[in-house]
Design a protein that fits this description.
single chain, four-stranded mixed β-sheet, 91 residues, 30% strand, alpha+beta, 4 strands
Length: 91
């Protein structure tokens, strides 16, 4: 089993979504995204932009992404949306 890490995170669609990429030492990479409203709701006590909040919770977002992959929680593995259901399972 190789270690996973967050490669990058960025805004898309007029800053209404945060997209992020994770990868591992074996060269596998996956892309995830979450609506900014959902992230702001979950991290409402933290100050800063939504992207700042994402980086605050980066380790948790990485762990959630790896859990989604390991447990095959979604069917489409090309660009995975972190939905309320998936986020509530982890947070």
């Amino acid at each position: 089993m190789s270690d996973w890490f967050c490669v990058s995170a960025w805004y898309e669609n007029g800053e209404t979504e945060i997209h992020y990429e994770i990868a591992n030492e074996d060269g596998e990479q996956y892309f995830f995204w979450i609506h900014t409203e959902l992230l702001n709701e979950k991290l409402s006590r933290k100050e800063g932009s939504t992207l700042d909040k994402f980086f605050y919770a980066e380790e948790d977002m990485l762990a959630l992404a790896v859990t989604i992959l390991d447990e095959e929680m979604v069917e489409d593995m090309e660009h995975i949306e972190i939905t309320t259901r998936l986020l509530n399972r982890y947070f």
